Q: What sequence folds into this?
């Protein structure tokens, strides 16, 4: 249960997208989060993590707290400025059979590293109390083994970063194939509501919701194993 939502003029919500801007499925979720935050009279900011962390596999292996990070990209600026200024954070990512996107994985691991080891500690969550977080995931696999323990992990991540995870929303488009369109309306409305209510959630409560996106039609212009005729294309 959430507290009664109202408007929060002047507050800021940061939306972080773990896939690049060409991933239309996750981009729709991120845009829905922006609409929900704007509906609550909040300032919003959308950042694409692949543009901030271009080398998602980079590891320095030298975190001792006595020297600056050896990886030179835009993550420290994101953590030390935009995340500190935000009143709430929404994470959006595609969910694969093993976990979320590699860029989101790199962001989570390195942000925890900055929080724990960096010689200039990130003060995330120490202004105006713990910051609420929420996560929107796009699932395209029939097997949901990738969801095992993800709630516990994200709640622990938010706690270590000085905030709290309020909700994880999974949009299920399992069984999707080339040429099949899915109805995302219920999912997008749920993401909007999640972002709109984010700043009014109770830190003691957590919710994980699954929303099915049923198929709504097949585009006959796609051919499987053979070229389609002009009549089938038109």
A:
């Amino acid at each position: 249960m959430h507290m009664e939502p109202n408007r929060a003029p002047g507050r800021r919500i940061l939306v972080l997208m773990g896939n690049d801007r060409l991933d239309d499925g996750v981009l729709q979720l991120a845009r829905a989060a922006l609409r929900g935050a704007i509906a609550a009279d909040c300032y919003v900011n959308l950042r694409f993590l692949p543009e901030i962390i271009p080398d998602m596999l980079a590891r320095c292996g030298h975190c001792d707290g006595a020297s600056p990070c050896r990886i030179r990209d835009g993550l420290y600026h994101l953590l030390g400025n935009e995340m500190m200024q935000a009143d709430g954070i929404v994470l959006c990512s595609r969910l694969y059979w093993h976990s979320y996107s590699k860029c989101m994985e790199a962001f989570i691991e390195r942000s925890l590293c900055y929080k724990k080891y960096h010689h200039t500690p990130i003060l995330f969550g120490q202004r105006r109390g713990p910051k609420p977080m929420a996560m929107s995931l796009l699932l395209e696999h029939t097997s949901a083994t990738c969801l095992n323990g993800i709630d516990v992990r994200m709640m622990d991540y938010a706690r270590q970063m000085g905030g709290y995870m309020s909700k994880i929303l999974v949009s299920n488009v399992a069984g999707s194939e080339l040429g099949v369109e899915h109805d995302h309306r219920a999912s997008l409305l749920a993401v909007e509501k999640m972002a709109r209510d984010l700043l009014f959630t109770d830190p003691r409560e957590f919710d994980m919701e699954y929303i099915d996106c049923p198929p709504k039609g097949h585009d006959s212009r796609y051919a499987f194993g053979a070229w389609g005729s002009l009549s089938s294309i038109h």
Summary: DSSP finds seven helices and eight strands in the chain. The two ends are 50 Å apart (CA to CA).
